[in-house]
Design goal:
There is one protein chain. With 231 residues, the protein is an alpha/beta fold. It has six helices and seven strands, in the order βαβαβαβαβαβαβ. The chain has one domain: NAD(P)-binding Rossmann-like Domain (Rossmann fold, 3-Layer(aba) Sandwich), CATH 3.40.50. 40% of the residues lie in helices and 19% in strands. It has a seven-stranded parallel β-sheet, sandwiched between helices. Helix 4 packs parallel to helix 5. The structure holds NADP nicotinamide-adenine-dinucleotide phosphate. NADP nicotinamide-adenine-dinucleotide phosphate binds next to helix 1.
Length: 231
């Protein structure tokens, strides 16, 4: 049964985004799910057909023209939740000494700048008191970095956390939004790899529980089990 709520989920072609689209649709949400190339998002297309609650839109998160086109297409659609999930891990070798400017620019752009630009552009459609969620990572925690490694990915998610803080303090504050930076756990996806301890189903069930439970305005950094993380 429908719960009467709509979520716009950015980056749902595979992995956690695909899992979240299914989990939220099964919970009665109307899901507007984006894919960079909908013609290749075969699993999302099948999920849309089987649930009847998923609409598929096109968005490369780094493409400002596509963002404008999406905003125009969705102009009349009020949103209860905007969830920006898309992200990349970057090159395998992330030591500061070896990173290239091109890699740094790409990962910072996709993981930090683009999500918050998307939130800024689409927030007028998010209901007052609604939720804007960003898929962050525990690796974005400065306080939690006790081992080093994954340097570029870490700074991209730490930057996402910082930019989301600014969003929460401005547009978020004006509209009493719940702004969530979420850690999904270390999950078995293309990014997380086969050795990750958490499955997609377990992670997205937890993330959906957190989304539905946290209704307090402000900025929160939480894992998929609802635990507060150190910034
Ligand atoms: N898996 C983990 O253990 C883990 C842990 C902490 C945080 N996270 C975060 O969780 C999110 C999802 O990760 P995942 O594990 O599901 O990764 P994944 O399996 O690699 O999927 C990444 C998703 O992001 C999309 N994406 C990447 N760049 C994009 C772009 N420029 N425009 C539009 N979509 C784009 C991909 O679309 P395409 O199919 O078009 O490439 C895909 O849908 C990411 O933000 C990641 O950093 C994951």
């Amino acid at each position: 049964m429908s719960n009467g709520k709509t979520v716009l989920l950015i980056g749902a072609s595979r992995g956690l985004g695909l899992g979240l689209a299914g989990e939220l649709a099964r919970r009665g949400w109307q899901v507007i799910a984006t894919a960079r190339d909908p013609s290749k998002a075969t699993e999302l297309t099948a999920l849309a057909a089987s649930t009847g609650r998923i609409e598929i839109e096109k968005l490369d998160v780094d493409d400002v023209g596509q963002l404008e086109a999406l905003a125009a297409r969705l102009a009349s659609r009020p949103l209860d939740v905007l969830f920006v999930n898309a992200g990349i891990s970057g090159p395998r070798d992330q030591s500061v000494a070896d990173l290239s400017r091109v890699d740094v620019a790409q990962v910072m752009w996709t993981n930090a700048l683009s999500p918050v630009r998307i939130a800024g552009r689409l927030q007028p459609q998010v209901a007052a008191g609604g939720t804007v969620a960003f898929m962050s990572s525990l690796l974005g925690s400065i306080a939690g970095n006790t081992s080093g490694g994954f340097e570029l990915y870490r700074i991209s998610k730490a930057s996402l956390n910082m930019l989301a803080r600014g969003f929460a303090a401005t547009a978020g504050k004006d509209k009493n939004l719940v702004v969530l930076n979420l850690h999904p756990g270390w999950v078995r996806t293309d990014m997380g790899g086969p050795q990750a301890p958490v499955g997609v189903e377990e992670s997205v069930r937890g993330l959906a529980d957190v989304l539905e439970a946290r209704r307090d305005a402000g900025h929160h950094y939480l894992d998929y089990q609802g635990r507060e993380l150190p910034w």
